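For practice. Supply one:
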Amino acid sequence: MMINLRVWLKIPDAEAATVKNTLLRRMGYQGIVRDVMRERLLSIEVDEVSDPETLIKQLTRELVNENKESFAVSVNSLELSNGCVPVKVSLWIEDGEAISIRDRLVKRLGLKMVRSVQRANIWKLYIDGDDPESVARRIAEELLVNPNKDRYEIIKLN
């Protein structure tokens, strides 16, 4: 079973604002990019459990700071809203932070059913024009991804 935990800031996200300003002011995307938002994605692979709701509550209590973050959870799928082009950026090298999160869940909380944790950022690009996916691909390659350590994927929305 895969638990997808999406987390975003309740307060303005300075990193997303910087990316948006860079795109508009320095890279010539005025009139093309309307907005940029960012979410953290934790994909947590677990063994089947009898009470997934309780497990999800434990995970969110440990991994989300509800004073400053909002979250959404989906099981065995990734549910995103339409209207944006989501670009998932993750490491293709070993992710020490994801390993640390897994170890914390297993060793500190005793959640032995946790098998793996994968971490990524989802950049939600709100793009005007005829081919927003190719614009998103160009933005990912020009700005969002460091090719020495990152990979990206344009997530298809249904």
